[in-house]
Amino acid sequence: MNDKKDESKKKQLKNNAQKEKKKLDKELNQTFPASDPPSRTRPGHEKEKKKDNDS
Questions:
Q1: What is the pTM (predicted TM-score) of this model?
Q2: Do 24 and 38 form a contact (C-beta atoms < 8 A)?
Q3: What gap in Å lies between CA 40 and CA 19, rounded to an integer?
Q4: Rounded to 10 degrees, what is the CA torsion of 16, 19, 23, 28?
Q5: Which domain of life is it from (predicted)?
Q6: Maximum pairwise Cα distance, the chain
Q7: Do 27 and 38 form a contact (C-beta atoms < 8 A)?
């Protein structure tokens, strides 16, 4: 039974990684050739995201 949970978790992590990559690719395409990088590539962007969600 744990094997099924582990496999499900691995699939979920892989899907999340693929979604994040697609989001980043989309943002990069939208900002090119601008000099400012997408916000998700900035260090600490996760902290800002959590602050916004806590409000």
A1: 0.49
A2: yes
A3: 13
A4: 100
A5: Bacteria
A6: 50
A7: yes
